[in-house]
Amino acid sequence: MELADFTIKKAREGLKNKEFSSVELTEAYLDRIKKIDKDLNAFLSVTEELALTQAEQADKKIASGEFLELIGVPCAIKDAILVEGQKCTAASKILENYIAPYDATVIKKLKEQGAVILGKTNTDEFTMGSSTENSAFGATKNPHDSARVAGGSSGGSAASVAANEACFSLGSDTGGSIRQPASFCGVVGLCPTYGAVSRYGLIAHASSLDQIGPFAKNVEDAKIVFDVIKGKDSMDATSVEPGISNFKFQISNLKIGVPKEYFAKGIEPEVEKIIRGAIKKAKEAGAKIVEMSLPSSEFALACYYIIDPSEISANLARFDGIRYGLSEPAENLSEVYLKTRGRGLGEEVKRRIMIGTYCLSSGYYDAYYKKAQEVRELIKQDFAKAFKTVDVLFCPVSPFPAFKIGEKADNPMSMYLADIYTIPLKLAGLPGLSMPAGKIGNLPVGLQIIGNHFQEDKIMSIAEQLEKML
Ligand code: GLN
Questions:
Q1: Contact, 408 vs 239, CB < 8 A?
Q2: Does the CB atom of residue 408 touch ligand 1 within 6 A?
Q3: Class of the domain covering 3-229
Q4: Which residues are catalytic?
Q5: Cβ–ligand 1 contact at 452 (below 6 Å)
Q6: Closest CA to 139 of 316, 153, 48
Q7: Burial letters for 187-215: b for 16+ Cβ neighbours within 10 Å, e otherwise?
Q8: Which of 447, 462, 399 is nearest to 262 (CA)?
Q9: For residue 202, is it left (φ>0), alpha (ψ between -120 and 50) or beta?
Q10: Is residue 201 in contact with ligand 1, taking CB distance under 6 Å?
């Protein structure tokens, strides 16, 4: 079986036409994982038995003519999303042996549509990072160059699809964690509108930003998965029923905004060339290109790195050695906290808890957290104004392609800068997609398409047309 050829659509066709069974397809992916993942490190756990049982059930359903959206199609899940009865570590020592007691809503939805779950993928610890180097279980390598990172935090999910270890995968995006690894690994990654997909069962990072989304080999597949997982969920009060249509937008009828702040100094010239090339193709296809400005974008990174750690300091308080996972024996309660958190949490997680605690402390709250919220509002207004005149925005995902393992690991500031183009839209709750736009040598470069709230259909119909041209 040529796994490289299998999109969701092709896999379903083959299953429908009885060219192969879901068990055969699942075995092929499991073999591939056995063969290459020791080196790639995209998976933290492979749930072979569960996958084969699900594949058998899928085959029975297919035989009885029940042909669900993802029936028999093998996928991989970021290890920050709960799958009942399976380990969920968030790539942290503190949750090394934690078993998920229930299915996240997205998992329930995948299972209802017959998907086969191969295992859990690597991430930066508690999804904090841009390279998976913050994983307590080693970095994921880039399938295109093993000396380089796969991106992060959902690096394992992106690499697993790029290396044909899974047909599609799920990740989460708080400040770029779906789009940046998708760009580095040369796959499609969609960060949906805030609230479009339930986060019930996703281990919280920063709750006003977290969103679950798909990685896939092409735009059509990303849309299939998004359509399965989206929607209101009574278990997540921030989720809404997106009135998303299936309207096909024609690229020739659209206005595309190109924000100048996303091409400022710091971007690698080769990356700019590829993105400008994609913009030119859209123009040739009839789109109107509007050069524009999002002036508050330059403050987005600073704003994010106050709001994000502040929310982290509150969300991660639950990992106290009492309720979940690791618990170090000690003389008294405060020692349990100190020892468990001291040993169980990694450097970056501790750094953010400390920064966040500081920003939220009574004497500094107004100067940092409140100020950041005001800046967030300005960033939102920039985008709202932009979408009055344009349909979507085109820009790079990252100023550079995948960097070398170790290159930024000791310098948090330079790691944070990797997210300069993926963070602003998150502060506004907007959807964004990364799609392959070209390569520098063998390193993929992604184009980012940003849309207005709940306009995933617009983003994806443009991306689908562009996919054929790039
Ligand atoms: N790299 C960003 C961070 O470290 C984004 C992470 C994410 O989206 N989960 O916060």
A1: no
A2: no
A3: alpha beta
A4: 78, 153, 177
A5: no
A6: 153
A7: bbbbbbbbbbbbbbbbbbbbebbbbbbbb
A8: 399
A9: beta
A10: no
Give SS3 for 391.
coil
Task: Write the Ramachandran bin of 415: left for phi over 0, alpha for psi from -120 to 50, otherwise beta.
Answer: alpha
Amino acid 4: pLDDT: 82
Q: Which residue has the tokens 């106290």?
A: 320
Query: What pLDDT score was predicted for residue 249?
Result: 86
Task: Return the best residue to mutate from 128, 313, 414 for the ligand 1 pocket (most ligand atoms within 8 A of CB).
Answer: 128
The pLDDT score that the predictor gives to residue 2 is 86
| Cα distances (Å, whole numbers) of residue 273 to 185, 229, 399, 437 | 19, 35, 11, 10
For helices 8-16 and 22-40, the axis angle rounded to 10 degrees is 150
Instruction: Give residue 55's Cα distance to chain centre.
Output: 25
Per the omega criterion (within 30 degrees of 0), is the bond before 153 cis?
yes
The distance in angstroms from the start CA to the end CA of the chain is 27
The predicted pLDDT at position 264 comes to: 86
Is the minimum distance from the CB of 173 to ligand 1 under 6 angstroms? Answer: yes
What whole-number distance in Å separates Cα of residue 286 and Cα of residue 118?
Answer: 42
Block means of pLDDT (10 residues each) for the chain, length 470 residues?
Answer: 89 95 97 98 97 98 96 98 98 97 98 98 98 98 98 98 98 98 98 98 98 98 97 96 75 95 93 98 97 96 98 97 93 95 97 97 94 98 98 98 96 92 98 98 98 95 94
> Do the beta carbons of residue 154 and residue 78 sit within 8 Å?
yes
- Structural tokens at position 284: 């040739």
Which amino acid is located at 8 in the chain? I
Residues belonging to the chain: 470
5, two tokens: 């050829």
Residue with tokens 């841009």: 130
* Phi and psi torsions of 74, nearest 5°: -75, 135
pLDDT at residue 3, as a whole number: 86
The full set of domain ranges for the chain reads 3-229
* Angle value at C-alpha 111, between 108 and 115, nearest 5 degrees: 140
What b/e string do you get for 40-55 counting C-beta neighbours within 10 Å, with b at 16 or more?
bbbbbbbbeebbbebb
Cα 430 from chain centroid (whole Å): 14
CA distance 446 to 398: 8
- DSSP symbol at 388: H
Q: Please give the Cα distance from 339 to 334 (Å, whole number).
A: 9
Residue with tokens 């209802």: 112
At 217 the three-state DSSP class reads coil
